[in-house]
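User: For a benchmark we're assembling, each entry needs the component sequences followed by a predicted structure for the full assembly. Here are entry 17's components. Please fill in the structure.
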Amino acid sequence: MDARVETKSAEILDKSIIRNLLQKYLKELSQFDVASQSDDEVSEYEYLDDYWTSDNRYPFLIIVKDDIVGFSFVRKLENNTFQIAEFYILPDYRGKCIGSRSAVQIFNQFKGVWHVAQGEKNIPAQKFWRSVIHKYTDGNFEEERSDEQPRGVKQIFNNDQSITTSIDELHEKLKKSVSKDTCYEPQRHLWSDGNASLGQCYVTTLIVHDFFGGKIMKAKSSNGISHYWNRINGKDIDLTRDQFPTNERFTDEQVLERVNLLDNKRYKELKRRVRLLK
Ligand SMILES: CC(C)(COP(=O)(O)OP(=O)(O)OC[C@H]1O[C@@H](n2cnc3c(N)ncnc32)[C@H](O)[C@@H]1OP(=O)(O)O)[C@@H](O)C(=O)NCCC(=O)NCCS
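Assistant: Structure for entry 17:
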């Protein structure tokens, strides 16, 4: 079917239509939850009103030939990161490329880093999003575990071409952007163009995490200074490793939470420079 799909911002007057669709959606999703929900619980959706009052939430109706066939909620998080909070196509309209077309229309409206999560047991949704995002990004996305709601997996990709589309590309941009003033203060007097990664590990790790997610790792180097790097899909990505000798030994390895890490001035400046590079 060559459906003309329209994804349009939902007005406040559309709220009752969305509430109706939400009930069907939550009921369907409850089959994938460990704890099954009663009908009463299903009818409550804590954030419904926020979609018409908050600047960081966007409600959409999905329409085909004047018929409302689904809805979607998008959230904007910090640092131009976006999230598909909810996404639903009515059963009668599935398997007709409506969901995939609407998803692309939504992605195209918001440029930045996207996080799209699916519950552990919602295998159809996992297949759907993997397929859509694979086509949309030409395979240029990461997938990792999602430990927030919904717990399961999440795909992460960046559709802002002015930022960067791959870790290699980001690495090149970081190499062009680091300088003495983005170096960790206690090491600044040792920084030089020849050892440009020195003292850049913390800010580099935060920026890689902003774009590609994964885990933030920390360990102690032999000089007693903490070293930071990323672990994405179980693979260590350490873009500032070359500041250490190849036989450097790190101890006290830890996984850190992004929320506990400060967006310091050096990080903001480095990110600003990376964004400016085409
Ligand atoms: C998941 C959902 C949005 C799919 O919508 P849809 O309009 O049927 O999807 P499309 O027809 O655009 O399919 C796009 C791709 O996803 C795949 N796909 C869609 N539904 C699938 C399913 N149930 N099982 C396996 N693959 C599926 C299609 O095969 C297609 O892949 P292809 O292009 O490689 O052939 C819809 O089934 C739905 O609303 N489900 C209930 C709510 C839900 O789980 N939402 C997601 C919450 S994270």
